[in-house]
Amino acid sequence: MGGVLYNSSELPTFTLTGLPGLENSQHWMFLLLGPLYMVSIVGNGLILFIVKGEQSLHQPMYYFLSLLSVNDLGVSLSTLPTALATLCFHLKKISFDSCMAQMFFIHFFSFMESGVLLVMSFDRYVAICNPLRYTTILTDSHVVRMGLWVITRSFCMVFPLPFLLKRLPFCKANVLSHAYCLHPDIIHLPCGDITINNIFGLFIVMFTFGLDSALILFSYVLILRSVLAIASREERLKTLNTCVSHLCAVLIFYVPMVGVSMTARYGRHAPRFVHTVMSLIYLFVPPMLNPVIYSIKTKEIKRRLGRMLVGTSF
What we know:
Blueprint: E1 13-15, H1 29-53, H2 60-89, E2 93-95, H3 96-129, H4 134-137, H5 140-158, H6 160-166, H7 183-186, H8 195-228, H9 233-241, H10 244-266, H11 272-297, H12 299-312
Antiparallel strand pairs: 1-2
Helix pairs in contact: 1-2, 1-11, 2-3, 2-11, 3-5, 3-8, 3-10, 10-11, 11-12
């Protein structure tokens, strides 16, 4: 593990890993990931096409859904090049700058998704707890500001990461654990002091995922309290049904994230490919399931999608 010591003028290359221990059969893995990529790209593209073309969907809820679809497309397209090269063509080398760029976009879109889910929970809170003021609170200008806040916050959180890594010396084998570049994976490779990196990494995780999940939970506590005050059982169920799609999106984003963290902390004796599979679930499943869930549970989108399918069948 000694290797060569690199400095900032001689940046290292990294070696990507597909499925540790399953190198001879990992190309079959892309037979699974390929359809996931296809569903994600086509599904989120259809969501954007439908929202843009359907005048009745030009509302805050669907603007936020469009932002979520753009984000999911970003996640898929950020991981696709190296996953395809590593799993199918066994091209495992990646330059330092390319790795930093991929790491930036993967984490940028991950933080952005957390922020989008937060503003979507605020949309549901206003729609259910203060419906008479919905149009005055969530005006087009406010929606744009919220979207810009989500994007700006994500950029500011991720932007320092490549520079904090570039200042460190690398002298190990520089083998990554995945088919793409992730900060928690790269941070174990430098030979220098990574205290600042660890502190900053913990800060951005708490300021994004930690804060967002707490606020989402708080918004649903308020929503549930408001729903329970409705006298009619049918009205309560009808009101809660408007939150099902968003709740599913929250669960499929945060549950795999918790699973990855728990596996990293307590699954040290598990086979290495288990960690890789967990990270694949975290990065690949939400972008694939989000458009499916919203297409099934949102009747306006389902109706328009049905008309498109009927139209293309003739």
